[in-house]
Each structure stands twice: as structure tokens, then as C-alpha cells.
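Design job #97: recover the sequence.
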């Protein structure tokens, strides 16, 4: 008896074109990016309206990230169980609704529930759902496809940051949340109607050649999460992603304090203040690196690409420690740091799907994505504590360099061999 997958594509339908699926995924990711990336624009207004302290308000952001990451196994299982069209529609609706409801709140607890809990759960469904959807449709370009999807999460904020920043002083933060909440909800729900899983018989062109090329890279069987969680190779990847998430967030969450302490925050570079120029460049490189290194990994292997990217971040951090008081160098090096870090969101999900197959890809990535949550808990707060305890950033930078180098060496020294043996064992079975 055959099992019909929810929302499976029919060969004659226009949405069976996988590049169309990639475009839909990119746009849906854009529609949920603002809650994370534009949160800082609302803080001052919310402080005045709710009478809350900065520390109390930042709990909202922590809830958003925690619900987005630590609930990802549940969110991913729901997507695999009920299909991407329904669940990603619900996720986009929850994400937009969180802003609409937040426009009415009159106390901090209501903000925690609307912006933090509803928004976090909704964005988490969409994020893990689309990453899992992309690696299903692109077995021959998994790194690139996951990278494009992940890049959409940052690209949306590029389009919305300036309009939202301009609307808050002219119309008020509440009206801004209401209007943009509905815009993001409508866009996300509409594009989600086009999502379909590939049919059971679908294969990319030149499947035979593809199978030969990736015979030592990709398992030909799909493994459930319960099986995956019993394998050492999964836990090695979880540790590696946790280390890279922690090291990256130690830096990316502290760029403003770095610039202030190094005395370059307001220094002009090409006629612009160093800090906003750095943030603009870093946002661009953080988006570009995901499809770029994903594409590279499709050609030279995931582990080799990890080694190159992680060492690039380590070297950039070392140079930043030495030359950070030069404003122009600070701008360039912070861009390189983001370029060496953001690719974890394409390399790890594509590697995981190579190892454990496509059928349960979304659920499986939901478990691995918890590593990002570990990094968010350890990265920013720990870096700030170390800075306060030592009075400088040197210790933080050294820790980041060490984590980057260790993870790079684990990629080529441990993960590569474990992955090869696992794929061979899978083929033999």
C-alpha cells in the first residue's frame, strides 16, 4: 500500500519546478525575518509605553530565539507530519500575528506572550520547515539550496529595516507593528500556498550520474530521528554546530560594544560612521556566505568547505584583535567574520541530509538546530560577562579563535571519516 505524502507535487503542475520552490522558500523566509532583525528599532518606544527596563524588554527577544530554536524538533515534526504548505502557512500567520497583537499590548507580560512566544514558535516552524523542504528538492545542490533559503532570512530585514525605522517616528511603534505585521502575514501565507513536496517517483535530471558522484557522500536510505539520535556522527555535528554558533554569536552580538571600546564607533570610513557601515557590510556578507559556501561544498565536499570557512573566521578574529583600532580595517574584518560564520546555516543542514536522507529531513534538522539555541544562550551573555570580568575583549577573542580552530580540525579530522564510514555502512545495509 503506497503512502501519499501531504502536499506532494504532481509532475504536470507548475510548482513541480524546483527552482520555483526555491523562490517561494526565499520569499517566505524574508517574510519572517523582521521580528528578529528589527527588534532593536522598537526598544526605545516600548520602554516609554510599557514602563519596562531594557533588561525586562530583552527577555522578549530571548523568548523569541529560544522558542524558535529549542522547540524546533516539535515544529519540524509537525511540518513532516502535515506537509509544508499547511504548516509553513500557519508559521507565517503566527509570525505576522505576533506583531499585530503586540501593537495592542499594555504590559510587559503581554509582550512576552505575543512577540516572544507566538512569534518565536511561528518563525521556528517556517525556518526549519523551509530548510528541510529545500534539501528534499535539491539532492544534487543541497548546500546551495539550503544557503539560498537561509539567506532569505537575512534579506527580508534589508528590505524592511529602513521603512520600519522611518515609520516608527512618524506613525508610532504600535501602528508600525500593526501594518507590517499584516504585510508580513499576507505575503508569507500567500507564497506558502505554492509549497509541494516532490512526488515519490521524482528524481533530478542525471540522477544516475549524481548517485555515482555522491556515492561516498550521501546515504541512499532515510533515517528517522530516533535512529539518528543514537549515532555518534550526529552528536559530533551537534557539538561542532554548537561550538560555531557560540563562537560566532560571541562576536556578532557584540559588534556595537567592540566598536565603542576600540574607539572606532563614530570614525568616518568613506564618509560614513564605522559602526553602521560595519553592520551594513556584515549583514550583506552574512547573507552571501550561505549560498556561496553551500555551492562550494557541493563541489569540494562539506568537510573541506567547513575547514576553509571556519579557519577564515579564526584568522579574521585574530587580525581584528590586532588591528581593530583602525576604523577601515575594523569594517572590513567584521564583514569577513560574518562571512566565515553565516555558512553554518547551509553546511550543517546539507551535511545532515547527506547522512540521514531526505524523507525525515525537516524533523532531523529540527534536532540539530537546537545547537543554534545553545549558541544563543552561551554566546552573547558569556562574552559580555567575560568582558566585564576582565575589562577587555582579548579573552573573548581568544576563546572564539580556539573554538573555530577546533571545529575546523574536527571537520577534516573526525567528521569526514565518520561520514564516509556511515555512508558505506548504510549502502551495505
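Job complete. Output follows.
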Amino acid at each position: 500500500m503506497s503512502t501519499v505524502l501531504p502536499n506532494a507535487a504532481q509532475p504536470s503542475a507548475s510548482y513541480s519546478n524546483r527552482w520555483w520552490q526555491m523562490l517561494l522558500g526565499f520569499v517566505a523566509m524574508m517574510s519572517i525575518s523582521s521580528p528578529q532583525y528589527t527588534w532593536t528599532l522598537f526598544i526605545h518606544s516600548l520602554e516609554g509605553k510599557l514602563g519596562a527596563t531594557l533588561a525586562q524588554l530583552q527577555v522578549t527577544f530571548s523568548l523569541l530565539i529560544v522558542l524558535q530554536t529549542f522547540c524546533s524538533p516539535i515544529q519540524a515534526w509537525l511540518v513532516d507530519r502535515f506537509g509544508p504548505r499547511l504548516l509553513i502557512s500557519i508559521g507565517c500567520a503566527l509570525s505576522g500575528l505576533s506583531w499585530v497583537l503586540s501593537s495592542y499590548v499594555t504590559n510587559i507580560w503581554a509582550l512576552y506572550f505575543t512577540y516572544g512566544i507566538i512569534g518565536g514558535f511561528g518563525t521556528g516552524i517556517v525556518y526549519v520547515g523551509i530548510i528541510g523542504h529545500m534539501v528534499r528538492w535539491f539532492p544534487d545542490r543541497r548546500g546551495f539550496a539550503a544557503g539560498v533559503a537561509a539567506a532569505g532570512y537575512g534579506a527580508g530585514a534589508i528590505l524592511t529595516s529602513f521603512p520600519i525605522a522611518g515609520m516608527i517616528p512618524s506613525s508610532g511603534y504600535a501602528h508600525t507593528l500593526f501594518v507590517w505585521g499584516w504585510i508580513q502575514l499576507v505575503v508569507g501565507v500567500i507564497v506558502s500556498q505554492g509549497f509541494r513536496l516532490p512526488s515519490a517517483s521524482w528524481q533530478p535530471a542525471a540522477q544516475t550520474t549524481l548517485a555515482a558522484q555522491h556515492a561516498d557522500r550521501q546515504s541512499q536510505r532515510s533515517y528517522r530521528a530516533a535512529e539518528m539520535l543514537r549515532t555518534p556522527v550526529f552528536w559530533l555535528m551537534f557539538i561542532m554546530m554548537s561550538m560555531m554558533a557560540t563562537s560566532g554569536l560571541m562576536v556578532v552580538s557584540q559588534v556595537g560594544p567592540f566598536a565603542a571600546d576600540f574607539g572606532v564607533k563614530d570614525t568616518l570610513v568613506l564618509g560614513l560612521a564605522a559602526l553602521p557601515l560595519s553592520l551594513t557590510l556584515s549583514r550583506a556578507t552574512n547573507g552571501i556566505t550561505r549560498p556561496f559556501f553551500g555551492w562550494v561544498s557541493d563541489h569540494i565536499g562539506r568537510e573541506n568547505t567547513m575547514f576553509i570557512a571556519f579557519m577564515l573566521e579564526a584568522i579574521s578574529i585574530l587580525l581584528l584583535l590586532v588591528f581593530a583600532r583602525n576604523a577601515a580595517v575594523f569594517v572590513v574584518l567584521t564583514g569577513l567574520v560574518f562571512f566565515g560564520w553565516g555558512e553554518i546555516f547551509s553546511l550543517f543542514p546539507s551535511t545532515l541530509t547527506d547522512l540521514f536522507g531526505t524523507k525525515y529531513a525537516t524533523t532531523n534538522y529540527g534536532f540539530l538546530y537546537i545547537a543554534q539555541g545553545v549558541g544563543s544562550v552561551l554566546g552573547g551573555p558569556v562574552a559580555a560577562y567575560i568582558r566585564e570580568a576582565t575589562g577587555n575583549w582579548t579573552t573573548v577573542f581568544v576563546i572564539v579563535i580556539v573554538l573555530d580552530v577546533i571545529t575546523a580540525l574536527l571537520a577534516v579530522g573526525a567528521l569526514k571519516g565518520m561520514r564516509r564510514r556511515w555512508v558505506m555502512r548504510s549502502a551495505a545495509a
